[in-house]
# Entry
Amino acid sequence: MTVFLSRRRGYGSLIVGLVLGCAGSIPAWAQGEAGAPVRIAVIEAMSGPFANTGEAIMRNLRFAVERVNARGGVKLADGAHKLELVPFDSKNQIDEALLLLRGAADQSIRIVMQGNSSAVAAGLIEGVNRHNQRNPGQRMVFLNYSAVDPALTNEKCSPWHFRFDASSDMRMAALTEVMRRDRDVRKVYLINQDYSFGQEVARSARAMLAEKRPDVEVVADEFHAIGKVKDFSPYAAKILSSGADTVITGNWGNDLTLLVKAAREAGFKGSFYTFYGNALGAPAALGEAGVGKVRAVAEWHYNAGEPGMDRAYDAYRRMFPRPGDDYLNARMLHMTDMLAAALERAGKVDAVAVARQLSGMRWAVEGADLWMRPDDHQAIKPLYVFTMQKLGVGTVRRDVEGSGYGFETTLKVSAADLTLPTRCKMAKLPE
# Structure
């Protein structure tokens, strides 16, 4: 049983509902066989246009947490404790997220997770900073699994914030390494969501193409409202009329699925270089038109050939067998396992002690090669760029969401080639 919480703007009351897990999922520890659980607030969009991404996140985190709990939870100085997720529905709104952060603090929750919006993440960093300054006995630590605006580990860096995903600059550096070699890329159409993350994707694409492929023409630099566009056909028509052979987009969630579907229906035959083109309906929306044309980037993909993650993926699919639930992120497993290790090394649920353990931590489990850089709390790791292909072709042994299409590795970019400088001036943790 998971408690689902939402705090509505303009109302002081806390709205409580129940989200039930699968039958028989209430563990024995809930009946008092171990110490009180270590609660983790997940502040994420569970409703609205990005509800599907929030649901996917919760499946990933639930799987990650249950793996830790199956091993006996975390061993602290006072005994064993299980991890417990407490979801809060932010509706992808900054002010909502900040109210929910306060609600989590009021419940004495010391660990916060979020990721599906860089704008919300920026708000939470500031909120956690203020809370920790005002409440030194109740400090919180913020673990970020997907918000990739570079500013979060540069100008907005915080000793309480840790990003386990690659920044958008790191992702673009990997994508443009493939574009450096792809001579079919001649005219590029940039289209992104109109907020800090999308703007950074466009900026880094322009800068890195100018350095690596100065012969490439950027024919358009388009932005659209995040989560507001229901019909992308006008944008697809503009892409088609521009003469572009390549689209670069950082779009995620339904904004990506609807974009690629509209482009396919409009007859676009070019390539998509995406951050998230391997997930949440995008391969099925593209179908045959995406084969050899759609590329994505991440720390891992289903056909990367890493035995540890292959086993984790098989276990995840046993837990979530529906095709529509087929979306596993390696970084969320690594983040949760690293949190468990940090808690055990700290010996207590204390933000300062946990932050000290996470800062500089190296992790090499299930194919991970991750270093949490202490200078800015940016995870430094290799990235895969991978291309859409039919199931059964080449190395594609697993498809995505039962679509009949999967991805094969195009290039694995080393951590050394993705270690970008930081502008962070990290504040020191209190003694």
Notes: The chain has two domains: 2-166+311-380, 171-298+383-418. Confidence is low (pLDDT under 50) at residues 1-33. The first helix runs from residue 51 to 70.
